[in-house]
Write a structure and sequence with these properties.
The protein has about 150 residues and is mainly alpha-helical. The protein contains five helices and no strands. It has one domain: Up-down Bundle (Four Helix Bundle (Hemerythrin (Met), subunit A)).
């Protein structure tokens, strides 16, 4: 039963099913559009990508490091600039998101990790909850990236 749950949580983190995958949402963004905010949008693609990375990183670190200090909310979960500061910033953010996602999935897959035992730190959070929060948050903002793609004609 637990192995089946671990498998489902990893599948949820990977996206798909009724959700877009991370790779599909971030693929082939022209550099000149990464920092553009279409009329009616709340954020640029860069802001959304970095928000995804920062939030997932925080969830990962909270889940594995009792000494982790989360960024200030909400400003610590958004980039300082509305566009990538360097030409390779988009690619580096994508790569780091994937590394952190793999690390979170490895925690979920580890038989040594009790999915439902509250962390000794925090306010009763457990790994299953954190994995679902990450998957839910990612799905929401990946949908936002897909909307931005359409608004920008990608």
């Amino acid at each position: 039963m637990m192995e089946a749950l671990r498998k489902r949580l990893v599948e949820l983190l990977d996206g798909g099913w009724a959700h877009v995958t991370f790779d599909a949402a971030v693929a082939d963004w022209p550099q000149e559009l990464q920092g553009r905010k279409p009329k009616g949008a709340s954020h640029t693609p860069w802001e959304v990508l970095e928000h995804l990375r920062l939030a997932q990183w925080d969830i990962l670190e909270f889940s594995r490091d009792p000494h982790h200090k989360s960024p200030a909310f909400p400003e610590g979960y958004w980039p300082e600039t509305s566009e990538p500061p360097l030409p390779d910033s988009w690619g580096r953010s994508v790569a780091q998101f994937k590394l952190d996602l793999d690390a979170l999935k490895a925690l979920v897959e580890s038989p040594e990790m009790d999915l439902f035992a509250p962390f000794p730190w925090g306010d009763g959070q457990d790994l299953a909850r954190e994995a679902m929060v990450a998957a839910d948050h990612n799905a929401y903002h990946l949908g936002e990236l897909m909307t931005l793609r359409r608004m920008l004609g990608i």
